[in-house]
Specification:
The chain is about 30% helix and about 20% strand. It is an alpha+beta fold and about 280 residues long. The chain has an eight-stranded antiparallel sheet, covered by helices on one side. A two-stranded antiparallel sheet has the order 1-2. The protein has a two-stranded antiparallel sheet with strand order 5-6. β5 and β6 form a beta hairpin. The longest helix has 15 residues. It is globular.
């Protein structure tokens, strides 16, 4: 019986051996299938396909944010909000359930500050850096007013006009507060993520990490004479990829930009996971 099986297998091989694939299409299909089987973590997907496929929901809490936010098994789980025309918002219990990890929402919102497609890029480039190409700071007047009162109008900085065609977002901490506030609609009870006011040392309020342990969606802060605040887009291994305001071009330009800093430039910074909430 074994001999018959071997002979049969040899006969099949003799017929098909000259033609390992009937066409290159078949080989391409196989490769595509294998590629699809390789799971890509959602949090690493920086440019979802629907950014250009569904332009009608670029600026809403629709499918683009849903892609970043994940599913019910991941941080920032979604719930359906029937009062907002079916748009998806985070559930009120998300932070408690998932240990306060809102990093995907924060990345989605800070990308939105650069352009409305949430791709992390921009139509305005200055010396190789992406600058905000639209009036993000004034887009949500409710958030703008709430954060102006919270941080104080004297600490807001410039949000009007442009610098080298890049739109302004005010002082660095005000900008980060604005992003955190806008990234956390839907918590419930009027609560929003913000940074603690009146201090640059947040260790008593939020989990703190060495700057080299920073991951996407975290906030970094340097205190001292020249404080600065930024949102981490990625840990590059040799430094951090950041989006902030009032850094590129120097203090007083207030422009929103994406840039990188090496570890040597990040001396004195601390990284924090944004978990602090206030009721507004």
């Amino acid at each position: 019986m074994k001999r018959c099986t071997v002979l049969f297998a040899m006969a099949i091989f003799a017929v098909t051996a000259p033609y390992p694939f009937t066409s290159t299409v078949q080989a391409d299909t196989l490769q595509s299938t294998l590629t699809l089987l390789q799971t890509v973590p959602l949090a690493q997907t920086d440019t979802p396909a629907d950014v250009t496929a569904k332009p009608a929901i670029r600026s809403t809490w629709g499918a683009i944010k849903a892609l970043y936010r994940g599913n019910s098994m991941d941080p920032n789980a979604m719930t359906q909000d029937s009062t907002s025309a079916g748009m998806v918002k985070p559930g009120a219990g998300t932070m408690a359930t998932y240990g306060g990890d809102w990093s995907n929402n924060i990345i989605s919102e800070v990308y939105y500050s650069l352009n409305k497609y949430r791709t992390g890029t921009s139509g305005v480039v200055y010396q190789g850096l992406a600058l905000s190409d639209w009036g993000y700071a004034r887009d949500d007047t409710g958030a703008l007013n709430a954060m102006t009162i919270y941080i104080g109008s004297g600490n807001r900085g410039g949000i009007d006009g442009t610098w080298n065609r890049g739109s302004r977002g005010g002082y660095c901490k005000f900008f980060v507060d604005l992003v955190l506030y806008r990234s956390s609609y839907g918590i419930g009870g009027g609560y929003h993520l913000v940074l603690p006011a009146g201090t640059f040392n947040y260790g008593s309020y939020m989990p703190a990490y060495g700057v080299q342990q920073a991951t996407r969606g975290m906030v970094i802060q340097r205190g001292g004479t020249y404080p600065h605040t930024a949102i981490v887009v990625a840990n590059l291994g040799w430094g951090l990829d950041l989006i902030d305001s009032n850094f590129t071009g120097g203090d007083g330009n207030y422009v929103i930009s994406r840039h990188a800093l090496a570890w040597t430039d990040l001396a004195g910074y601390t990284a924090y996971r944004a978990t602090y909430m206030r009721q507004f």
